[in-house]
Amino acid sequence: MTIIPRESHTISRKDISENALKVLYRLNKAGYEAYLVGGGVRDLLLGQKPKDFDVTTNATPEQMRKLFRNCRLVGRRFRLAHVMFGPEVIEVATFRGHHQAEEPEEDRNSSQRAQSGMLLRDNIFGSIEDDAQRRDLTINSLYYSVADFSVRDYVGGISDLEQGIIRLIGDPETRYREDPVRMLRVARFAAKLNMSIAPETAEPIPRLASLLRDIPPARLFEESLKMLQAGYGYSTYLKLCEYQLFQPLFPTLARNFTENSDSHMERMLAQVLKNTDNRIHNDMRVNPAFLFAAMFWYPQLETAERIAQESGLTYFEAFAMAMNDTLDEACRALAIPKRITSLIRDIWLLQLRMSRRHGKRAWKLMEHPKFRAAYDLLALRAEVENNPELLRLSQWWG
Asked: Which regions form coiled coils (predicted)?
């Protein structure tokens, strides 16, 4: 273990949420160990503003509940305490312990593992040393103490942070099997922090990528938003493709990839992700419905054209069937919520309606709540295809 004293690191209490400090001080005062941990410490050391502050302690969730009136316990897979301060929530986790290969009977209720090696439940408590080993990445396993203002490093995280290396703690294959989402986290942090992935951390990923199919689709949907709507979506997309992680998340899109990556769909993917990144960096709002409507537009369009040719249905009927087919397949991999799929349908249907410019109905379209998003997709299509007719159409509506 390395202890980095106050004078040798750049973390200052003035950059830490007052509420996180309150939690740390109260736990220390009650006789418990407590540390700021994870991404908050990493970002402070990198000179960035953390999005949130997580605390870890040797107090159990039940002891936490007695100590904080404004506390509620959440999570089944791993019990956490949420200490509520108005809109801000400080997440507090008890130090996690190691899993024994053959657990005593009383621990089997605390921990459960699937045949693939995936952890289904994980409530074994331990020491700070155990906790450091149980975290996923070395750079996320740094502990800041308000007792002496030092940073504790049990796994070489400071050195990896300085060298720009994403490294998994422990045996990579075992850790990926415990929780396949770790593969996505490795790709996401490499893209977000512009760091390289340690060779032993990278090697098993393409082999194990298919394990993502064992993860509940609702969790994969949440992970996809973290990856694609956080300001570094385009570089994350490239990393996902490089490590064969894109296919289990977006099978419809991966099936349509070409050798030169220059199909309309692939150009659309690159452009919409770059535009989304720019919007986030300019503090503008982003909408997952628009992002997914753009990403899945060309596979949906091809399906509509195929159905129209094969079935003898009207184009509008074929288009409606294609929307269902495309979204059904997308939702099997990522459980895209209904409120979002219904907006995607609106944006797609407006593409048909915007191709007609005459009469009162054209002006009525502009009052549609999703008109702006539909217009943005039309303009993107024109740009991606370099299609003079679509360019004229988008200029007319613009």
From this structure: none
